């Protein structure tokens, strides 16, 4: 038996012994997810147990070194852990944009003191993070951001506004791109700051959406004093760090769609139920063709993503290729969700109330939510621009 085979046997029995049976089932509601932080109230006793066991073993951040709160697994071990976790159908014990998007850049650009201060509480789920990038005048053109951070002795004084800050009202800390200089090109004067949201002068205003549900907030900063030791990397060199965070985010978004779609009832079965069959096959040949194409594209995308995940697990940062994955996975997800709603016809357009099954209502909401996939983390058009410039090196 190779050391990796032994590791597989060990981690498989650890998962079987420690993951409660109810945590080996698909999520029923989003409010059953665990995101951690000061305000977290874990709804289910088994979620709490599962989260605590995983955090205690460092497995909320499998490849992070033990002294930073992780499990210290190698890339190959983490890939095996992931396979066994999925095989058993375990729910994620902790969801954390801190671990997914911020930890890799703290590891790369942070000082030892920053690593020890920020990483362990993140892995233990004690601190929930949100992302302060977009501003009213800076979305796709992110480098136009205006939020100012002026140095006064050992503190920055921050003034300005972020927008579309997902879950800011539930988060404890925010990682921000701020302007520390107006000299040179607009990308040169940006720094990367970590801000405790309990600092005086930070206010969060939830944004209401027509759907009645919204993760979005406006986050305002008025003379917010941030210790200089909370700056990651050099002053005015934050753009590179910010871009790397986006690469992790894009990779994450493409992987999430992959996982979600796996849990769905297959498109073929749904169509058979909704439309019926003729001689054992779907009666509508055009729909049959659309479903077959979507399934083939889904499988190809899944294999490509798996290859890329293995590269990342082996220690390479994801790079500009993530724009290809993000673009393709999110456009494909939109296509699959739309197809589902089309198969269900009128029944696929319910929002609430009697006359619709829980599954039908869920499909409508997933379809509408999927429209945001090709905007969050940078729109599809922006991904195509990045692919043209940085992957294909096409001329301007
Ligand atoms: C679900 C969701 C969650 C989000 N969460 C966060 C968050 O937590 N933190 C955060 O900071 N932000 C967040 N955002 C904001 C997100 O990053 C921005 O919406 C996104 O970057 C686009 O910016 P914008 O909305 O200002 O659109 P704009 O930049 O105004 O773009 C409008 C349209 O013009 C197109 N366009 C713009 N420039 C170009 C160009 N050069 N070439 C071709 N087409 C172009 C775009 O593709 C788009 O279709 C979130 C957004 C969504 C949808």
Give me some keywords for this one.
Butyryl-CoA Dehydrogenase, subunit A, domain 2, binds flavin-adenine dinucleotide, 46% helix, four-stranded mixed β-sheet, Butyryl-Coa Dehydrogenase, subunit A, domain 1
Task: Outline the structure in words.
With about 400 residues, this protein is of the alpha+beta class. The protein folds into 3 domains: about 5-125, Orthogonal Bundle (Butyryl-Coa Dehydrogenase, subunit A, domain 1); about 130-235, Butyryl-CoA Dehydrogenase, subunit A, domain 2; about 240-390, Up-down Bundle (Butyryl-CoA Dehydrogenase, subunit A, domain 3). The protein has 11 helices and 10 strands. The chain has helices at about 5-20, 45-55, 75-85, 95-110, 110-125, 240-265, 265-275, 285-315, 320-345, 360-375, 380-390; strands at about 130, 150, 155-160, 175-180, 190-195, 200-205, 215-225, 230, 275-280, 280. The strands form 3 sheets. A 4-stranded mixed β-sheet has the order 1-4-5-8. Strand 9 and strand 10 form a beta hairpin. The protein is globular and about 80 Å long. The relative contact order is 0.08. It binds flavin-adenine dinucleotide. Flavin-adenine dinucleotide binds near residues 131 and 162.
